[in-house]
Amino acid sequence: SSASLQILASMPSRTIGRNLGAIISQYCNRTARLRRQSSRPPLQQLCRTARPSLRQYDLETDPTSTTLEEKRCLLVKELLSLSPSQCSHTLLTMPVSLAEKRILRQKLSRQRDPLRQHTSHWAPFSPCGWSKVCVVLVCTEAVRAPVQALAPQLSPFCSPQGCRGLWYRLSSLLRTALPWHYALKQIGGRFGSSVLSYFLFLKTLLMLNFFSFFILLALVVVLQAVYPPASVSLQPFTGLELLTGAGYFTHSLLYYGYYSNVTLNDPCTPSPKGSVCPLTAPPLPYNLPLAYLSSVGVSFFVTCILLVYSVSRSFRESVGCSTKDLAIKVFCAWDFKVIQRHSVKLQCENICTQLKELLVKQHSRSQSQSRCQRLGRGIVMLLAWLLALGFASCCVLAVHYFLEHMHVEQQARGSGRWQQEAILLVLPLVVSLLNALMPHLYNLLAMWEKQDSPVTQVYVAIIRNLILKMLVLFLLCYQWLSRSVICSTEECWETCVGQELYRFMVMDFIFTLLDTLFGELIWRLILEKRLKTKQRPEFDVARNVLDLIYGQTLTWLGVLFAPLLPAVQMLKLLLLFYIKKTSLMQNCQSPSKPWQASHMSTVFISLLCFPSFLGAAAFLTYTIWSVQPSETCGPFRGLETIYESVNWWVLVLEKSNPNITWFAWVYQPLFDNTCLLFFMSVALTVVIYFNIQVVRGHRKVICRLWEQIAKEGEDKEFLIQKLHSVYQQRHR
What we know:
This protein is mostly helical. The chain is 71% helix and 1% strand. Strands 1-2 form a two-stranded antiparallel sheet.
């Protein structure tokens, strides 16, 4: 009402916003202080509120005492005494309209032109100034001839526009070289944050594999390539090795059996029973078995640090209360630095998709169900979970009986080379087939459950597929550690395990390509050509993310048995990025129920850290501490366990240099005891738990602050109503 508007207009905080002359006078005084002082004013002189009050300035609050034009002229005079950057910043921060700022800029430009014309003539130079001019002239004459010769070729790039265009071309070329810069923006704008989370997760896996591959390459692979072992008769390359990993690749840097147990630059005899070293040992001995074990340990340690950092950062980024995200997205989402038409269109699509996600999220929160509906939903979910666990158990039992049947058939009869290599592909084929078919069965269960929230549906699908894959991998790891692997007597069992993991990775990649071909491309053609509909298949985030976690788990399990397996995984991830991106853009549509994946990246990293990484670390730790390595090949041949190589190295180090016996004394209680590893694991778990609790506390504080802001708005409405009632009572 008009009475409330009069009350608001008479408030001291609204005086500056209403009186233009007061604003100009305030900035005139501020500019004068800025001109007199070289530093910022102290904190006590600054205003405490967002809108400064006139009580801190010696201004006349009566606008009739001084005209507006005089105040403008006074402000322009003070602005002329400032530097151009300070002048532009002052005009930018003034709370006045654009028309008023335009008037002030015009007055500034009119008064600056005579000053520029007056100061455009050369002032008399000092002796130092004349010497600088002479040096510049001499250098100009020396460079003029080569520049004139190259002028026709450099003329398109010598102008500011040409240099700017060249820089833009180079920067765009660098961006296109990265597979996650422009493509990720395009995916996020067209399909939303749910599909984008898959590609961000793929980018994280690529980074982790790069660090592991670099460590293994620098510490072991390069040195073993420079100092190769004794020559072994190599089998001819037929091309089938790309699928089986056997044959030509068996005696190569790819597998464990190729690496030797020598010590470079060390005259000591490499015997596990003891060694005799001379008094003067070489300065830099390099123990390849110890380097092999250390590189695996360092790569796992670096991966653990990166995973913990990624989990903590994801938790920090996901902190917040999303009740006010819609208003923030509406008023603050646009980036005014975007000027190109294609970028503007991409940003529009991105903001529209995010608004759809937020609206669907708020709509799902507003829906309520009765007790009968919730009871029926609970019974359906319980039955669906029982069926899912039953299907997973049946798959594990099928793989177990199939493994036993394969070993019996392998021992019963011999076979040729081609038939034997074909048999090697049967187990990965069966496991990959189960991993490809079971997610579709779980999707049918999800359709029966009819989950309202797409986020809950994705979480349920991830948990069910994860249980299936982890159970199958647990069974395979048990078979590998019990030496129940198809392997010839001439090869290391570690090499056979590495070949098995390589075949699983290759077969998983092939089934991913087939699923992309038949599940997306062929299905789109059927929908468009046969059914004559514009509907396209949707991108299954849960299944694709679980495929990435499964492939990365295979890589971590095989680092000890195949040091170059991270390089194979990097190549696979790069191919998957471009294949999935192309198929997504050509064959898929946006989600029918847009949903916001604000915490999805955190869930993906957490699943990668806890079931996948910790499981692989436990498997390799047990292998290093308890399993006997091969006696005829590999860097740890002849030892009881792989970890015994560290004890042997400490013994040799103590004999070669008696001055460092303290190292053996410190090593025995700290590193030779498994309690240290247990306490380190407990400490890491406690740190992650406390970080999660701190993040949850921050999230609660942020939600309470949002609630406090909402309550303060209600307080203002309450005060305005009270003021309105008091104002009406006084005027009766």
